[in-house]
Structure formats: structure tokens, C-alpha cells
Specification:
By secondary structure, the chain is an alpha/beta fold. Helix content is 39%, strand content 17%. The longest helix is centred in the N-terminal third of the chain and has 14 residues.
């Protein structure tokens, strides 16, 4: 599935682990430095940020940590699914857990994929490229 019609080159990341933020940011930058990654380390603040921006500023992609403070990635998706302005934005849940239950719940809510966080640096680049495959270039 590919989507279009959202902000220039913005990826919104809900992630509280600084190392994962930096590794993913470096991977996207290496793929294409015009991508801007905005990291928000808290689920409630992530939703509030989205609510505060105009439609034209919405991200092209959302990456949500499954276990993030205040609202989990799944809880964020549940909230966003109630609002039509977010339905066309691809959402990816990622986690250190490879739990089939977590994955099934995430997919059931309509995320484009559930990805287990890589344990080695080289895999971040591969995963970032895969994540970008859900964004249609305008």
C-alpha cells in the first residue's frame, strides 16, 4: 500500500529510546537527507502534536514504538483511527518484542506493518528503506 498527499518529507516517530531515535534518524538521512524525522518520546505528546498541526503539515509516515510512555503505539493508532484526517497516513508499529499477539493486534488496527527492532546497526538501513516503501513520492 502506498499513500500520498501529506507533508513534504516529514516522518513522525514516537520513540522514547534515544539510541533507537538516533539510529533510525541516521538511516533515513543516509537514504535521503531531505527526509526530516521528528521524534516525540511520549504517546500523549505525540497525539497532541498531531492535533496541533494543520492538515498540510501532517507527516508522510508515522513510526510508533509499541511500548512508549503514557500511550502505547497501539493506543495511539486506536485514537488516530477515530479521525479521518489520519487515515491516509501509513503507520508502522515497531518494538523489541516479536510477539505474534502484539503483531496481530497492530495489524488488526490497520497499521501497514509491525516490525521488530533490529539488534545490529546494518539492519537499521534496510528497515528504514522498507519503511519508506510505504510512502508514495509526489
Amino acid at each position: 500500500m502506498q499513500f500520498s498527499g501529506h507533508s513534504k518529507r516529514l516522518i513522525l516517530l514516537a520513540e522514547d529510546d534515544i539510541d533507537d531515535q538516533e539510529l533510525l534518524e541516521n538511516a533515513f538521512s543516509e537514504i535521503d537527507p531531505t527526509w526530516q524525522l521528528v521524534c516525540i518520546p511520549n504517546g500523549r505528546k505525540f497525539v497532541k502534536y498531531l492535533e496541533s498541526i494543520e492538515d498540510k503539515e501532517l507527516p508522510a509516515l508515522m513510526i510508533l514504538d509499541y511500548n512508549i510512555p503514557e500511550l502505547t503505539g497501539v493506543e495511539i493508532v486506536e485514537e488516530l483511527n477515530d479521525q479521518s484526517r489520519y487515515l491516509g497516513i501509513p503507520k508502522i508499529i515497531w518494538s523489541t518484542s516479536s510477539s505474534p499477539v502484539f503483531k496481530a493486534r497492530s495489524i488488526e488496527l490497520g497499521v501497514v506493518d509491525y516490525i521488530t527492532k533490529p539488534s545490529d546497526l546494518a539492519s537499521f538501513l534496510t528497515i528504514a528503506k522498507y519503511m519508506l516503501s510505504f510512502v508514495k513520492e509526489s
